[in-house]
Design goal:
two-stranded antiparallel ribbon; 10 helices; 8 strands; 31% helix; globular; disordered N terminus
């Protein structure tokens, strides 16, 4: 890692910052991940912000200002690493101090959009079995513009999720149904698939479903109209040692035997993910769109998964006229 104006960037800082500047010249809205490395580190930074008028925050903003001045055009920040981990310490006033931090950031950069990047799996775990004090969203929400809720890592890739995808829509426990026509008899063991686009795929026993996450977000008072679901576009292998560049959609289509155990979805199920984001959020975000088969190796059209999500979000059904046999796995 390298330090630039008190902002830590990856070890290949020159390349990363040069790439950032190229993107900024494209006039697109650019958001960068920003935050301290762990919740434990956050507690040290925020220790007494509510009792000393944000002294640490004000000092931090000086370095951030220098960074933003050197890279003009950044639209907003996605604040990250707020989740608890095994090294976390209890911080009863986490939310009050974090709000001071957010308000200090907003007062220094009134035109900057501020979002929180949060892991959906942690949110489910913390809600189900809270061990330490975490964020109170009723306290901090007025200082946050939006929430990016990631389900990129949700369930582990096992045989149960090979055809289902690791972030199934599942059953809404509060309503005992889903908005996408799945069986409401049980959240497990249903012969109707949940977010697969096919039938006869049993829904595994798991708390990590989009419908359950949506209910928990409501319980936490995270506004639906500020929630963006972050979806995985690339396949997830059961062999965690495989590199990202070796687990692309094109690689899956080209090497059917080698990738037969990978967890992925159908065009139809990605389409349902777009519908879900429309009905239960403000929108969606995707990861690694550049490896979503831009060269049309799978013969489903370039960027097939992304376009299927986008079609679902816009109220259009999945495009099944294209020959996508390589993505119809069994």
């Amino acid at each position: 890692m390298a330090l630039t104006n008190n902002v830590v960037v990856p070890s290949d800082a020159d390349y990363v910052l040069a790439t950032l500047d190229v993107i900024l010249k494209s006039s697109k809205n650019v958001f960068i991940l920003y935050g301290h490395t762990t919740q434990e580190r956050w507690t040290q930074v925020l220790a007494c912000e509510a009792c000393n008028n944000g002294t640490n925050s004000q000092n931090e903003m000086k370095g951030l200002k220098s960074f933003l001045d050197q890279h003009p055009g950044i639209k907003g920040l996605l604040i990250t690493n707020l989740e608890l981990d095994e090294n976390s310490v209890d911080f009863p006033e986490y939310s009050e101090n974090f709000k001071v931090y957010l308000d200090t950031m907003r007062s220094n950069f009134p035109d900057l959009t501020i979002g929180l990047f949060l892991e959906g799996k942690f949110i489910v775990d913390q809600h189900t079995n809270p061990k330490l004090t975490w964020l109170n969203f009723t306290i901090i929400d007025s200082s946050v513009d939006f929430y990016s809720i990631s389900v990129v890592t949700f369930n582990d890739c096992t045989d149960e999720f090979k055809l289902l995808g690791t972030a199934p829509i599942g059953l809404s426990k509060s309503l005992n149904t889903t908005s996408l026509g799945h069986s409401n008899s049980s959240c497990t063991g249903s012969s109707n698939s949940s977010s697969t686009g096919s039938t006869n795929v049993t829904m595994p026993v798991t708390n990590y479903t989009l419908s359950n996450l949506k209910d928990i977000l409501a319980d936490l008072s995270i506004p639906q109209n500020k929630t963006y679901y972050r979806y995985r576009l690339n396949p997830l292998p059961q062999d965690v040692s495989l590199l990202l560049c070796n687990t692309t959609v094109a690689e899956m289509c080209s090497n059917g035997t080698d990738s037969s155990s990978w967890c992925y979805e159908t065009i139809e199920s990605f389409n349902e993910k777009g519908q879900f984001a429309k009905e239960n959020g403000a929108g969606f975000i995707v990861n690694y769109i550049e490896i979503n088969d831009p060269d049309n190796v799978c013969k489903c059209g370039p960027y097939p998964s992304f376009n299927a999500i986008l079609n679902g979000y816009n109220g259009n059904s999945a495009n099944t006229t294209k020959e996508c046999a390589l993505l119809k796995r069994s």
